[in-house]
Amino acid sequence: MTSLFVLHYFGVHSYVAPIRCQLVLANADWKDEFYAFDETFKDFKDKLPFGTLPVLYETTVDGETLVIPESGCIERYLAHKFGQMGANSCQAAQIEMILSLAQFMFDFSMLSVVMVNNDELQNKNKKELFEKRLPTWLTHMDKQAVRNGSNGHLVGDKYTLADTRVICLLDTFVAMDADNTISPQAYPALFKVKERIDRHPHYAVYRKSEAFSMMSTREKNYYVSNKLPFDFDKAKFYDYTL
Ligand SMILES: N[C@@H](CCC(=O)N[C@@H](CS)C(=O)NCC(=O)O)C(=O)O
To answer: Pfam families, per this entry (predicted)?
Structure first.
């Protein structure tokens, strides 16, 4: 018997796509607990450790329950548990570098673009994201994948938190990329990492699930309500046959 993980979040990918990807790749015993993204959330908010979602609840084999808020903390906790934090301290440092940059990219897109409700500022920041920051980040991630031997991983020769974090973020940017500038041709080594994750037997099944497509639709509605194009289906570059 192993732990049971329950991931409390809204019915979208957003902050927790990499966490779900980690759980799936590790073949963990887990499920989602969905919250409604409306005024009823305030009834739950005060009961959450930091007042925000996601929160991970783990019931261990001994019957103890661990409660962990903060997406980055949940990712690292699971990565340590599942052996996704690198083979040694040098690999762990490389993973941390990649995570630190990914966090900046995620925060910039959320706080400076998606959640901005001033059209002029949103357009200015979106232009900066797609014309400057994103090509730079993608180029660095592609170079990292090449430095690692173009073996379908960003660090070492196994799935790590660097792979799951970067590829889930890449999917979000592909979905937002109205001009289709992000492609396997432009960033071949990085897309090899994506292909490896997308073709993983468990993840391939998960991506085809009803829950996954329900979350893609909700996520699209959220972006569209913030006046941004979004199509998660565009992130389907590979045939998920097993
Ligand atoms: N630093 C937190 C941020 C989480 C966060 O902002 N969650 C949002 C939903 S995506 C939330 O709970 N918002 C509700 C609120 O703040 O009342 C993390 O990474 O987990």
So the answer is: GST_C_3
